[in-house]
Amino acid sequence: MLQVDHINQYYGSSHTLRGVSLSLEKGQCLTLLGRNGVGKTTLLKCLMGVLPVASGKVILEGRDITRLKPHERAAAGIAYVPQGREIFARLTVEENMLMGMAVKSGRKASVINEEVLALFPVLKEMLHRRGGDLSGGQQQQLAIARALLAEPKLIIFDEPTEGIQPSIIKDIERVIRLLRARGDMAILLCEQYFDFARALADQFIILSRGEVVAAGSADQMDSEDVKQHLAV
């Protein structure tokens, strides 16, 4: 599904990503771990085309999308749930959801999928409420629902548990488990909350100073070698 080959990225004279490679298949969840400031969000923005790469390739289902613009990548099947949620505060919940469907055409761009609403029952009760009036947890659920309404092949989460109350974290974990079990999309999860990441992972990679320093299957995540890269 997704193949990232030796991505390099620079910010001025700073070498922010150093030959990062990863691969991810449908029905799998890959967790991206690392301390703050090691390049995790930079990598995700490169995958979405928000930041350019200096060298390397991003391949989606055999297609080289390295030079595509963000809206072209969205149309190709990538959805992004950004850190901080970034919902449209002045738009209603329903209008936010319709924005997520902008990659579709005709009737498909105007009819909200009931299956997505069923994942987040609280949103169905708030369709006409402004996004800015929702709690942080509800806004996170809205950001996820908005991404899912694009019917992506790959969904990218950037720290979905940040600042979220435990009950909503459980709901988000439940939804990601369901998405993984469905088997029709790949999931890339960037997360600081180790237990949450471990519970969902099929495989993991750890970044440090812009490069991959550890990678493996979920059953290797409890090793001391892995934990030393995450300790503050």
Structural summary, described in words:
It is a single chain. This protein has 232 residues and is an alpha/beta fold. The chain has one domain: Rossmann fold (3-Layer(aba) Sandwich), CATH 3.40.50.300. The chain is 33% helix and 26% strand. The protein contains nine helices and ten strands. The strands form two sheets. Strands 6-7-8-3-9-10 form a six-stranded mixed beta sheet, sandwiched between helices. Strand 7, helix 7 and strand 8 form a beta-alpha-beta unit. Helix 3 runs parallel beside helix 6. The longest helix has 17 residues. The protein starts with a strand and ends with a helix. The model has no long low-confidence stretch (mean pLDDT 92).
Rg from alpha-carbon coordinates: 17 Å
Q: Helicity, in percent?
A: 25-40%
Shape descriptor reads globular
Strand order of the largest sheet: 6-7-8-3-9-10
Strand content: 25-35%
How many domains make up the coordinates?
Answer: 1
Q: Give average pLDDT, whole number.
A: 92
> CATH superfamily, please?
P-loop containing nucleotide triphosphate hydrolases
Report the major sheet.
Answer: 6 strands, mixed
**Total beta strand runs:** 10
Per DSSP, the total helix count is 9
Q: What separation lies between the terminal Cα atoms?
A: 33 Å
Within the CATH hierarchy, at the fold level, what is the topology?
A: Rossmann fold
User: Low-confidence segments, ≥5 residues, pLDDT <50?
Assistant: none
Describe the oligomeric state of these chains in a short phrase: single chain
Given this structure, which CATH class is correct? Alpha Beta
- Series of secondary-structure elements, N-terminal to C-terminal: EEEHEEHEHHHHEHEHEEH
CATH architecture: 3-Layer(aba) Sandwich
Structural class: alpha/beta
